[in-house]
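Researcher: Quick test of sequence recovery. Tokens follow.
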């Protein structure tokens, strides 16, 4: 290995061109935390959390007792908004998108809804069984 003996290191031809022998300027001190102007912290959510709709207003008490309050509200919302996305479902029921997805999975496993995919979006639609479960307006027993 040879050592550079050039007198002017800045124009030395012994060093590769990618290396620079010129000194850089010393780093500038950053402003102290106390001298900075405090910035307001933006809110995480622009709206207040909503509670799910009361299924007693939207579904029969028996359906609510069978499925649970939130799941009955999810089924009723899907029946009111067929083809809604998981995000729309979460918005209309006032729950988190992950919870809406979980409830939709359970309702789909029970054959009360179907879910189709359009690109990266899940679209939820009630099945005839899901609609029949919600249809408690008639007073006559099923099958008569």
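Model:
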């Amino acid at each position: 290995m040879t050592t550079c003996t050039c007198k002017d290191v800045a124009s030395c031809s012994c060093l590769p061109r990618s290396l620079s022998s010129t000194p850089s300027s010393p780093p500038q001190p950053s402003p102290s935390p106390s001298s900075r102007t405090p910035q307001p912290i933006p809110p995480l959510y622009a709206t207040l959390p909503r509670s799910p709709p009361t299924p007693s207003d939207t579904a029969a008490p028996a359906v609510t007792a069978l499925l649970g309050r939130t799941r009955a509200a999810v089924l009723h919302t899907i029946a009111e908004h067929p083809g809604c996305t998981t995000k729309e479902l979460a918005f209309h029921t006032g729950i988190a998108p992950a919870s809406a997805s979980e409830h939709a999975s359970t309702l789909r496993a029970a054959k009360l809804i179907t879910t189709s995919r359009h690109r990266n979006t899940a679209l939820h639609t009630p099945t005839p069984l899901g609609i029949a479960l919600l249809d408690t307006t008639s007073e006559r027993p099923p099958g008569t």
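The beta strands are 84-85, 113-118, 121-126.
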